[in-house]
Amino acid sequence: MKFPWRRRSNHELDEEIQAHLRMAATDRVERGVPSRDASDAARRELGNVSLVKETTREQWGWVWLEQIAQDVRYGARSLAKSPSFTWIAVLTLALGIGANTLVFSMAYRVLLQPLPYPSPERLVTLWESSAKENVLQGQASAANFYDWQAQNEAFSSMTGYTGWRFNLTGTPEPENILGALVTPEFFTTLGVRPAQGRTFLPNEDQAGKDDVVVVSDKLWARIFGAATPLAGQKIVLNRSVCTVVGVMPSSFAFPSPATEIWTPLSLSEADRQNRDGRWLSVIGRLKPEISQDKAFDNMRLIASRLESSYPKSDRGWSVRIVTLHDSLIGDSRTTLFVMQGAVGLLLLIACVNVAGLLMVRATGRSSEIAVRRAIGAGRGRVIRQLLTESALLTVIGALLGVLLADWGMHAAQSLGSDALPGLQSLTINGPVIAFTSLLSFVTIAVFGFVPAIRASSVDLYESLRPGRKGGNAGAGSRRNRDLLVAAQVGLAFGLLCSAGLLAKSFLRLTDVNPGFRVQNSLSMQISLPRSKYKTSQQQAAFFADVLDRIDQTPGVLAAGGVSDLPLLGNQMTFKILLRDEEKLSAPALPNAGVRWVTPGYFKAVGMTLRAGREFEAKDSASAPLVVAVSVSAARRFWPNQDPIGKQLRLEEDSRWFSVAGVVDDIKQLALDSDEGAAVYFLYSQKSEDWLNWMSIVVHTRGNPADLGPTIRSRIWSLDKDQPVTAVVTFDKYLADSVSLPRLRAIVMGSFSVLALSMAVVGILGMISYSVGRRTHEIGIRMALGARPGEVLLQFMWEGARSTVFGLALGVVAALMMSGLTRSLLFGVSALDPLTYAEVALVSFVASLAACYIPARRATRVDPIVALRYE
User: Fold this and answer.
1) Using one digit for the tens of pLDDT, what is the confidence trace for 311-360?
2) Longest dimension (CA), the chain
3) Measured between alpha carbons, how far is 262 from 179 in angstroms, rounded to an integer?
4) CA dihedral sign, ordered 175, 179, 182, 188
5) Which residue, of 241, 243, 577, 642, is most buried by count of CB atoms within 10 Å of its CB?
6) Is 93 helix (H, G, I), strand (E, B) or coil?
7) What residue spans define the domains of the chain?
8) Which value, to the nearest 10 degrees, does the dihedral of the CA atoms of residues 470, 446, 86, 471 take?
9) Total-model pTM
10) CA–CA separation, 545 vs 533, rounded Å?
């Protein structure tokens, strides 16, 4: 690289030196010195012209820029001469930097990126909590929410909301849309404005004024077209005509990315006074001068006041305040910390690996470096040159790493679905690029500085000695090699242990019996519009007709319905009264998960009957009232008694139901949690008109997904405007329920395999270097009678010794990481000795295999060839 100003300056410098020489020669000629002798004397007086030029150039301000350009050119040529070393080093760094970039992009999106609302740090979620009920973060009752809203002094605004599904008709195909019922303050509390129109007015939560909706930009574009003006457009929700008053911007997605519509939460006076049903999520915006601690004190005072005023419903209940950001993150923080620690270890292994390769390479370049030092290059200049080569490796590795991270984002999205919040919106943005750049500088410092320091401190005499061609590796060099090998093995072992524990935990989780059939099962959800199906009798009759038509479909073995499907985290919990304990006070009543089912549900889902009988078609609304209970409910409610014939009822329902059967416990919430007591009521015997939805479960002879369109058409033959949503196989539900553990196991497993591979490559390179440096020694030993097996064992022992030391360090690293992984494990201890032993065996065998290849090559050294160079 030639700088234009440098050429001009060099030309001016040449002219100045020549002018000086001419003036000096002329002066001597005038004093009587012959012309030729005068020129020679002038040159001798000036000295080395090249040195004078170089000294002068060093005074120019831009010389450092030229030296950097020289270092870059020289470094590029040097790396190009060693393509194998260059690509191994670049790929190693790319894997380390790429993995860190990928995990940081996840961590930034989930943990660091602020919520897209004004002053997001002042947004908090308010939960009801009860130590007695074992509820840490529970939703609030409507009555308590309205009291919080009226009595608090800490919040400038407070809103309540709940997710809800709506039937959208009047379109080419009916849809069931995820939306939210919100109080009028919802958008004001979050601080968002619509892209078109307005949000809700304060009085639009009153009956008769609540026929207004706000929609997402996606729904607006799908129904009317993105360019259509608002102009009082109307849609039909649950058979009611509603006016669209606002369209939200594309960036708004709350409470879920899938939410497409918001309607006012309009409650009757009785519902507003209900303190028993806790179903409302609450968000508050803190006043500017109020801290979270002060807000908590204020809310705790209100909760105490409500507890005194309403002991039946609020005794033992308090308030918990959590930032909205932390509420949305959930349990993802620990997962991301573990993954970030894993990729940190992976990058450290990569740095150690490349540092070892650089030290090996620098030893081979000792003569070159010695020559540069001998002809005047300072040690600082040599260090800078070597660091420039390291920087070139890192820059190339970082660019390749960003490409690998981008590929990894797509792979993680396909593996994890919505396992982590925001996973589907990962991008390589400014903060991620800044992190990668900073990481690259740190990487240069970690793996490049020490090798550069060591390489620059060469022994000039030894390095330039005639006939020298390598020499033996000294004790210090061997110690450095052993430490690098041990460090790589130890770090890889720690990472492998964590990955092994997570993989074993995932396998234990997938081996859990959910208590129902997963194979050949299809489910779909139907929510009936209350305006058309007003009563429980109408709702039950519709679903009975639907199930009858599905049962007649070829390929269907059984069909049934349930209010809440298992593995979706849904469970309605109610207080249960037992006939033998009618006098218990409300706070002492036991809780149970409650579900409403049709007679064919247990057969369709494959639940096992333990006692009594299943529901039958004769169990109609006019028949004797019956229920089925789970094994856990039977043991809890009637220990050491026969539950068949026992009676119970819901606190809200005065009717008594007799136990007709006992069924197995199932995993209703998740595979890693037991649901406890459960009670199954017949949908046909319900009295709750609000229970207008049902999930249909179909057991099929063949592939269940093939029957989806047929079953959907059967339902539409009854009601062409009835949406059918979430047509999903149970296999898919099961896979989604373990998506986060699966993502953790796959990502950590991939990182650990990379770490072990890097360690093996590092060991292979170190032992190969040792064999190459000690060729002369091996030749002498074999010339004196050493057998190949002895030489093989010597190098294998050296590798094994470093490996064992590394495994000891790895145990310490694994124990340090166990504190993070402990909360993520299921069915396996964080200190599981079998996992540690298995990982140690795999690491030891892999390390010995890496040692064997160069050690085997050492046994094939020809003594004559090895000694000839002397």
Assistant:
1) 988 989 999 999 999 998 877 888 888 888 888 888 888 888 888 777 77
2) 140
3) 6
4) negative
5) 577
6) helix
7) 4-60, 71-121+331-468, 134-316, 479-513+732-870, 529-721
8) 0
9) 0.77
10) 14
